[in-house]
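Dear colleague,

Thank you for sharing your sequence with our group. We've completed the structure prediction you requested, and as agreed, I am returning the results in plain text so they can be pasted directly into your records. Please verify that the sequence below matches your submission; if there's any discrepancy, let me know and we will rerun it promptly.
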Amino acid sequence: MKASCQSLTSSLIKVTGDFLQKYQDFRRDAAKIYVDTIIPGKGDVEKQVNKLIDDAFGLQTDLMNAYDKVSGEGSWKIGARHILVPTKKVTGSLIATERTFVIPATPFDKLTITIKKTDGKAGADIAVCAKYSTGEYFNKKEKSIDKGEETVGREVNFVLDDMADKPTTIHLVHTGLLTNKFEYTVSVEGEFNQDEMEKLGKSSKAA
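Please find the predicted structure tokens below.
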């Protein structure tokens, strides 16, 4: 089985649609902070950027809480695992199986996803797929980590641009002998694009 673009649940698509206005309002507020404070370098720029990242994480958390209520999903339930941006490290293990992660719609312009093999003799095929908020395909990237003990420590990076308001799926598929394992970590970082923030901030002022 090859890694593929996994579909989003109808519940997640609905909740994402319900949150789009909140995401757009957040980006307009973030753009104002970029134009008024961050770009001209007023005050503690690093503190301002970190606060925006924290607020973006909180917004995604609110979306996932709403999704949990609608779908009845919970962390105990087997299936796709949801992760938010930024996530420093999620650990997992594949043995003759596959795993899907879902990143809900992100307020960031750029995502960097890193998957690292930490142990085992198996390999993995990996597909990272960005979607529009309605669930349709936007962008797909595929990479593999070869089987064999010599590939322990190897990592692959996926960089996706123009990601504001777009959810993402990460699909890992075990390769190699069925009895061999593939242990891994997943991390996700998000960035605001300064040029996009500046354009959005100026257009908001002109409106």
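Summary note from our side: The longest strand covers residues 181-191.

Kind regards,
the structure core
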